Amino acid sequence: MDITLYRYQLPLTQPMTFHDQTIAQREGLLLHWGSSWSEIAPLPGFSRETLEQAQQETIAFLTAFKQGKTIPVTYPSVQFGLDCARRSWPILKHTPLPPYLLLQGSPDDIIWSWKEWLYDYPSRVKLKVARYPMRDELAMIRELIRLAPKTRFILDANQQWTREEAWTFMAQLDPSHIEYVEDPCPSYADIRSVATHTGVGVALDEILCCEGHWDFFPQLKALILKPMLIGSLEKCHDLVVKAKANNVKVIISSSHESQLGNRLLALLAAEWSPEQAPGLDTLRYFTDTVLDDKQQIDIKKLQVVWKS
């Protein structure tokens, strides 16, 4: 069986900042394992491993594998990529749902783009918050609600608020228009405290990668699973099972993977949580693709870093 590890670079339409790390292009690895493809792409600012570390661990595993040995891997992105490459994917009973809309940028930019919908607004949309002054973001949300009162809003704070800041912001939201706020604070205890204090629904996202323990509470509406940050498919599935046992929604979400990684996440979403639209509306922020005109991997755009 032939195995090849490639590296890709995809320019972004605009620089993006993740926990104080700004990138102008997305880089990652594509693994061709026999007839299967998978992706290994740590997300700067969120993954504990760098791309270089993930590449080194992947090459070490592949080298040992070709020698008939199996060595453990510790980095979540490598665990996920190897699991996907070796998985027997089931035949889907459900067609993957289209992702819900993601809006990011300055409050003025978001309001301007929102008005371009000409009143044919989606039923649910996700907004990135905790990036601009609180008063400006609250004014933006009020304006979006005024324009589209039937739309439900998901707000993603990416752990950027202190408990007190989250209290201040969320206490001024109208819960009837808010689906939930993702990761308002960096700790589970603070997220639970703020949600209980304000009554606004919350979801756990990147916190699942940092704190393994969580319990159900009434304001917990969803788990946002980013497999590239969590790790093995077994660990991800365990979270799915626990969430559904507590009637908590499961949303499979992107870590800004390439078109290939996005496709794999859509398959997992259709298998594990077919009733929920996935959080995969990230491909439009790329100016290029790893696919050719026939939607197959275009190896001419990739760099070989290891080959069996």
From TrEMBL:
Q: Domain of life of the organism in this record?
A: Bacteria
One molecular function GO term is: metal ion binding
Per the record, the GO terms for biological process are: amino acid catabolic process; menaquinone biosynthetic process
The answer, when asked if Nucleus is one of the entry's keywords, is no
Keyword Lyase on entry: yes
Name all Mandelate racemase/muconate lactonizing enzyme C-terminal domain ranges: 107-201
- Keyword annotations: Lyase, Magnesium, Metal-binding
Q: Which SUPFAM superfamilies match?
A: Enolase C-terminal domain-like, Enolase N-terminal domain-like
| InterPro entries in alphabetical order | Enolase-like_C_sf, Enolase-like_N, Enolase_C-like, Mandel_Rmase/mucon_lact_enz_CS, Mandelate_racemase_C, OSBS_N
The Enzyme Commission number assigned here is: 4.2.1.113
Q: What class of enzyme is it?
A: lyase
Q: Which NCBIfam families match?
A: menC_gam_Gplu (TIGR01927)
Q: Which PANTHER family does the entry link to? A: O-SUCCINYLBENZOATE SYNTHASE, O-SUCCINYLBENZOATE SYNTHASE-RELATED
Name this polypeptide is given: o-succinylbenzoate synthase
